[in-house]
């Protein structure tokens, strides 16, 4: 278990380092881990980590769905096997009760901090000062700033989060009726029918139905052995495929 965790840490840090200007695209995995750890401990570093920047979707289903796909750190992955669920889909209910509000909250925080960083974000991190452990302000005097600082969202592409859920539309609609919070986030605002919902969702039929998911996308690069051969050539966002 410890070896697996260490290996995962190295791979994760290596993939993250390609977005840092101070790290080489050809940095070895062990050096990448040390670089990521050093950035996180450097109080002068305005970009210690990009965190959830570029988040775009959440996959709720069996790991077989996404295994081997290069998602470019843009997807939240939540394991769920419908074959182990009961008739009321109680397992999926509890998973979505946590995943949808949390992931939607993260997505909206990045969305608003990106589209208007002055009002909904917190501006540049450079002049920030801690205030009574309650928040930050700019310089020696300002209002408390909310949202994320500019350097944290500079690579983010604002969009509503897409949930890809391994279930039937009937089950999903039932969960939306049973859980008010999920219903509000996934449906249009009850007070304003023209307002967009906070998240988009797409259901794929249970595996018993025999539905086969096919890719209807143009020709894209194929990874023969490792994702590193794909993402090591660029620092920009790549296709989610």
Structure, described:
The chain is α/β, with parallel strands linked by helices. It has 2 domains: 1-49, no CATH class; 51-123 and 154-211. 33% of the residues lie in helices and 12% in strands. It contains 7 helices and 6 strands. The strands form 2 sheets. The chain has a 4-stranded parallel beta sheet with strand order 2-1-5-6, covered by helices on one side. It has a two-stranded antiparallel ribbon with strand order 3-4. A hairpin with a 3-residue loop joins strand 3 (128-131) and strand 4 (135-138). Helix 1 (2-17) crosses helix 2 and helix 5 packs across helix 6 (180-186). It is globular. The two termini are 29 Å apart.
Q: What's the quick description here?
A:
The chain is α/β, with parallel strands linked by helices.
Provide keyphrases for this structure.
single chain; 241 residues; alpha/beta; 4-stranded parallel beta sheet; two-stranded antiparallel sheet; 7 helices; 33% helix; 12% strand
Which descriptor suits the 3D outline?
A: globular
How many strand elements? 6
Unreliable stretches (pLDDT < 50, length at least 5) are: 189-195, 205-224
Strand-and-helix sequence, N→C? HHEEHEEHEHHEH
Q: Give the domain tally.
A: 2
Distance N to C terminus: 29 Å
- Multimeric state: single chain
